[in-house]
TrEMBL record:
It catalyses: nonan-2-one + NADP(+) = (3E)-nonen-2-one + NADPH + H(+); 6-trans-leukotriene B4 + NADP(+) = 12-oxo-(5S)-hydroxy-(6E,8E,10E,14Z)-eicosatetraenoate + NADPH + H(+); an n-alkanal + NADP(+) = an alk-2-enal + NADPH + H(+); 4-hydroxynonanal + NADP(+) = (E)-4-hydroxynon-2-enal + NADPH + H(+). Monomer or homodimer. This is Prostaglandin reductase 1. Its main location: cytoplasm. It is an enzyme of class 1 (oxidoreductase). Belongs to the NADP-dependent oxidoreductase L4BD family. It comes from Euphydryas editha. Gene3D superfamilies: Medium-chain alcohol dehydrogenases, catalytic domain, NAD(P)-binding Rossmann-like Domain. Residues 12-336 form the Enoyl reductase (ER) domain.
């Protein structure tokens, strides 16, 4: 089998030479274990963000969809399609009893679950709109923002895996949705195909000016995927009792973690507007993932949620796909077909 190993900590943008592709022998199957052939691998921002949380060298983790090719676990016969966190490898062995979706311990990303019936949709959605990113959008927006019909919602990273689903859920809930993304093409897609009320290319507009015009009555909910200065500006436009769901801060992931980020003065907005600002990790709702998955599949079936993927083909292209995603090449979920 083959896998990607991270040999040294990333500095700035991850380099190809930070990785090594390693050939290795898989152990013979023991009772309770399954052999999984990888079909689809996810490349995500947290692969960059979590880099220093793990001692190097480590196997590159990520979610993946695979198919059981050999089994000594009766509940997971040959042919079962599964979602795991086995990362960038072409084959893997899992002891099913030792990992489960409701494991919320330190190693909470260590999961295996059967991909539900996607009713003819691509199994790759199991790591996208009906997988971890879609579930992040579902709980991170609905639980933390508690949106009400008629409210104004702002989403950053709006054309990405999580953001594009958040915006569509906000429309389903009857909100006015404003998105920020990094290209004119993405803006067009958000407005013309996903039904965003307004979208802007944050690279070419003054965020404060366009937001004031697009949300003259202020912002009630903000789903923050990027952090940084754009977030400070948006939080400054919030209404009283506004809610901010802090999902990610990708604008800082390639920064040197030993240097303190420049402080931004948010406190006056938070105090005088009595804002609720809450961070989360999607595994907080590990026991409720099936509920989100069922609802997301339902919305896709009914045409309310349009999933989109940015597909790269080939095990050897995993690094390029990862760097491309960090640079904003993707519309929707970046996935790699193995
Ligand atoms: P995306 O599909 O959104 O891909 C990343 C996108 O980030 C790029 O396409 C790019 O789009 C944008 N980006 C890159 N650099 C910057 C920058 N400096 N400023 C603004 N935007 C930038 O990724 P995901 O949907 O998978 O993840 C979105 C966010 O959600 C990330 O911050 C991630 O860490 C977080 N997340 C958090 C989870 C949680 O449990 N809290 C779970 C899953 C994701 P563009 O062209 O618009 O710049």
């Amino acid at each position: 089998a083959r896998k990607y190993v991270v040999k040294k900590y990333f500095e700035g943008v991850p380099k190809r030479s930070d990785y090594e592709i390693v050939d290795y022998e898989l152990p013979p199957l023991q009772d309770g274990e399954v052999l999984i052939k990888t079909e689809w691998v996810s490349v995500d921002p947290y692969l960059r963000a979590y880099n220093r949380n793990v001692p190097v060298p480590y196997d590159q983790f990520s979610y993946q969809v695979g198919i059981v090719e050999d089994s000594k676990c009766p509940g997971y016969p040959v042919g079962t399609r599964v979602v795991t966190h086995n990362g960038w490898c072409d084959y893997s062995v899992v002891n099913v009893a030792k990992v489960s979706v409701s494991n919320t311990s330190e190693n909470s990303l260590n999961v295996i679950y059967k991909l539900p019936d996607l009713k003819g949709l691509s199994p790759s959605l199991g790591i996208g709109a009906v997988g971890m990113p879609g579930i992040t959008a579902y709980f991170g927006f609905l639980e933390i923002c508690q949106p009400k019909a008629g409210e104004t919602v702002v989403v950053t990273g709006a054309a990405g895996a999580v953001g594009s689903v958040v915006g569509q859920i906000a429309k389903i809930k009857g909100c006015k949705v404003i998105g920020f993304a990094g290209s004119d093409d993405k803006v067009k897609w958000l407005e013309e195909e996903l039904g965003f009320d307004k979208a802007f290319n944050y690279k070419t507009v003054d965020v404060k000016t366009v937001l004031k015009a697009a949300a003259p009555n202020g912002v009630d909910c903000y789903f923050d995927n990027v952090g940084g200065e754009m977030s400070s500006v948006i939080i400054g436009q919030m209404n009283k009792f506004g809610r901010v769901s802090v999902c990610g801060s990708i604008s800082a992931y390639n920064e040197d973690p030993t240097k303190m980020p420049k402080a931004t003065i948010l406190q006056p907005s938070i105090i005088f507007k009595e804002l609720k600002i809450e961070g989360f990790i999607v595994t907080r709702w590990a026991n409720r993932w099936p509920e989100a998955i069922a609802q997301l599949i339902g919305w896709i079936q009914s045409g309310h949620l349009k999933p989109k993927e940015h597909v790269t083909v080939g095990f050897d292209k995993l690094y390029d796909a990862f760097i491309g995603m960090l640079a904003g090449e993707n519309k929707g979920k970046a996935v790699v077909q193995i």
